Amino acid sequence: MNFFDYIKNESFFKPFTFKYRRIYYDCIQILIDKTKELPVLYESDAKDSITLFLKNMELHEESDNLSETTEENGGDLQAASIISLFRECGWLLPREIGRNGEYVVNVSIDCRRVMDFLRKMTEKSGEGMMSNRIFSMYEIVKSALEEDSVRRERPYTNILVPLIDNESELKNELTDLKENISTIMKAVIAFQDINSFGQFIMKDEMLDRFFSEYFFVKNNGLIPTQISFIRNKLRVLRQGDLFEKMVAECAENLQIDADEARQRVERYFAELQYFLSVEYEDNMELVDRRINNYYNLANTRIMLMSSNGIRLESALNDFLNAVSGLSEEEQALAMEKAADCTRIISQKYIGYKSFEKTRRLKNEGENIGLAVAELSEEDKDLKTEELFKNAPNRYSVERVGMFLETLLGNEREIQLKERQIRTKEEAIMFAAAMLYAKNIEFPFEIELSEEMVKTDVADINNMKICKHSEPHRNSDTGLSH
């Protein structure tokens, strides 16, 4: 809805166009404050408050001589005329008689909201606004996940709408950051002397507040953690009964159908997710680049101011290029004249390093090379055997034999289908037993059958495992995965 369709009063902003618009703004703020202090604000009290304000402004003598009541200046500066103007433009409600028979002054809701917004905008301190928005969103999401949270009773009003409001304000704060940098850069360019530039850096409160809040948000370890928490928990809030409850409440509050309410709630969640996942990081990176540009600009400006506007590197380069085109005699003469124009003073300082004694290393001057020696064949065999011992085979003949010995126990033979293969290592042990079946040192015989044993690890042919004393040995093996 357009604002002017909602306000339904073409004269609502009329006092702001008059000559005494500053006084009208202060007067309506005084009336709003009075309505907060008094349960009922009568017209006599309102007039007394405005009259006292005008006297404090030292304008009462001038207002006695003012009789301009035309539309161009909006009326004279009298308490009665100011209240009448406020009623005409819709800032005050029409006259209403109170219980004692006197007229009551009631500030309209629209005027109160607009003036509160203007007051917050003008009295904005700029300190901690970004971090406070992120903290508020974190607290809202955290409390919304609690089972006994009161926010779950009206989730659209108490969860989703506050999140959107804080997200919108956080966007505005990021925009303010970018605009503040542009303002600072313009101010730096305007300085013409090093003294004024130093005063700006040392004493400008706006610059100090700007960098203080920005670096707090960027370097504080809690901020990224809380943003990640909000982003992850939004997915939880977007599912389940709580989401459907938001849709129903949105449809009821805004008097729209369920499909339109669902689209609105989905759009709000999508906007929050996109901002926290993409826009926030993009804006912070943009601010980083602009701050770097500000530092580079300030550094360049300081160099120019300290060199009286002359770039020494460029001037020196032009001089050397010009000298290189001269003859040898002219070059010598030019260098002598340049030397006469330049005074170079050598300045040396004695520091703690000058008094330190050099300590020599203990092995300095000694032979620290590695000795070269050849190994004999016996030493090589011992080293090789030691390596094999340190890296044993997990599925060697001995280990497989010990595994089957433990598996059989007191039995003479077992069937694989009678056992359960639970791990991959057990399956490999049985497969290795198939491979070692022909080995003389292997103390077991393996007899395979066509029957397949299916396990969670692998499908293996059923086998009969028995001691080596059994007469029949079958060397066929089979294993399929």
Provide a brief overview of the structure.
The chain is an alpha+beta fold and 481 residues long.
Task: Characterize the structure shown.
This protein is of the alpha+beta class and 481 residues long. Helix content is 60%, strand content 6%. It has helices at 3-7, 21-37, 43-56, 60-64, 79-89, 109-122, 129-144, 155-190, 194-203, 205-219, 222-237, 241-254, 258-306, 312-324, 328-341, 377-390, 397-408, 424-435, and strands at residues 96-97, 103-104, 413-415, 444-454, 459-467, 479-480. The strands form two sheets. Strands 3, 4, 5 and 6 form a four-stranded antiparallel beta sheet that branches. Strand 1 and strand 2 (103-104) form a beta hairpin. Helix 8 (155-190) crosses helix 12 (241-254). The longest helix has 49 residues, at 258-306. The relative contact order is 0.05.
Write the layout of secondary structure elements.
Layout: H1 3-7, H2 21-37, H3 43-56, H4 60-64, H5 79-89, E1 96-97, E2 103-104, H6 109-122, H7 129-144, H8 155-190, H9 194-203, H10 205-219, H11 222-237, H12 241-254, H13 258-306, H14 312-324, H15 328-341, H16 377-390, H17 397-408, E3 413-415, H18 424-435, E4 444-454, E5 459-467, E6 479-480
Antiparallel strand pairs: 1-2, 3-5, 4-5, 5-6
Helix pairs in contact: 2-3, 7-8, 7-11, 8-12, 8-13, 11-13, 12-13, 17-18
The H-and-E topology, N to C, reads as HHHHHEEHHHHHHHHHHHHEHEEE
- Helix and strand composition category: alpha+beta
Tally of strands: 6
Radius of gyration: 44 Å
Tell me the overall shape: flat
Rounded mean pLDDT score: 77
Helix content: 55-70%
Q: Give the termini distance in whole angstroms.
A: 68 Å
* Biggest sheet record: 4 strands, antiparallel
What is the number of helices?
18
Work out the strand percent: 5-15%
Which regions have little confidence, pLDDT < 50, spanning 5+ residues? 63-75, 470-481
